[in-house]
Design goal:
Layout lengths: L1 E6 L6 H4 L5 H5 L4 E6 L12 E2 L9 E2 L1 H15 L5 E10 L2 H8 L3 E6 L4 E2 L1 H7 L2 E4 L9 H12 L10 H4 L37 H19 L1 H9 L5 H10 L2
Helix pairs in contact: 4-6, 8-9, 8-10
The protein binds ligand 9D3.
């Protein structure tokens, strides 16, 4: 799978492609990432890639000309019809369903905006999907692009040591994850709040699974009630889940 990233800040990417569990996916080319500096694709003697917006107002707008030259170079190098994804605060929020869709394809061209945005005519002519990381303001699309690349890379075969980790992902199940504990069993002087829940020490796997499911359900209901509604609508809540939720809702 191949991703071509058009950006003014290609140097932001390298450290994220050479560390952590996703490193092997990137270094082996299982997830190939090629970086294209927009500034290398301008005809302008001053290598300008932006200018002031018609109609006035703050900030600068990325120009159609260098964007179209960069995109043509990427398309020629790829030789396929890969979708062009543009990261923008007005895009559709990235979620795990989108990540899975991207991970199951042959890759994409990722366009990272900077400044106030991109000339609308380029977007209208070339962009397939606009994606946002969420409702907060960043200074550009590079971190959202890296977030998508990371989320796609960790879904590749062999990236997570234990293949069960996928199936148990928070969100792949549609619920928030339960709490986790490891050594020591008790934090000195911290009382009950510093002690691992007894059920996890019991060795009773059915009871442990039930406890984890209940913690997920309770946390999701409190923090993300819309995810409970979605899980219910999708038939992902068992009668046992519903009985437990009923004990919380009063
Ligand atoms: C007042 C208008 N601003 C929109 C909130 C203009 C603006 C601010 C910041 C336009 C672009 C940007 C840079 N942000 C991104 O390119 C971006 C982004 C983000 O800021 N938040 C969440 N997801 C994304 S994806 C790309």
């Amino acid at each position: 799978m191949r991703f071509d990233v058009i950006t003014l800040f290609p140097n932001l990417f390298a450290p994220h492609l050479s560390e952590g569990v996703t490193r092997r996916a990137f270094e082996s080319g299982q997830v190939e990432v090629r970086l294209w500096n927009l500034r290398d694709h301008t005809d302008d003697p001053h290598r300008r890639v932006d200018d002031r917006p018609y109609g006035g107002g703050p900030g600068m707008v990325l120009l159609v000309e260098p964007l179209e030259r960069a995109l043509a170079a990427v398309r020629a190098a790829r030789g396929d019809g890969a979708p062009l994804l543009h990261f923008s605060p007005t895009g559709r929020r990235i979620d795990q369903a989108l990540v899975q869709e991207v991970a199951s394809g042959g890759g994409a061209i990722l366009l990272c905006g900077r400044y106030e945005g991109i000339d609308q005519r380029f977007l209208d002519r070339h962009v397939d999907v606009e994606l946002s990381l969420g409702d907060f303001v960043l200074s550009g699309g590079e971190l959202p692009a890296l977030a998508l690349l990371d989320a796609v890379a960790r879904l590749q075969d062999g990236v997570l040591g234990d293949s069960r980790s996928h199936a148990q992902d928070s969100f792949s199940q549609g619920l928030l994850d339960c709490p986790h504990y490891s050594r020591p069993e008790a934090l000195p002087g911290a009382g009950d709040a510093g002690t691992v829940p007894a059920v996890l020490m019991s060795g009773n796997h059915a009871q442990i699974a039930r406890w984890r499911r209940e913690r997920s359900l309770a946390l999701t209901l409190r923090r993300r009630p819309e995810l409970i509604a979605a899980a219910r609508a999708a038939g992902r809540l068992s009668p046992t889940d519903e009985s437990y939720l009923a004990t919380l809702e009063q």
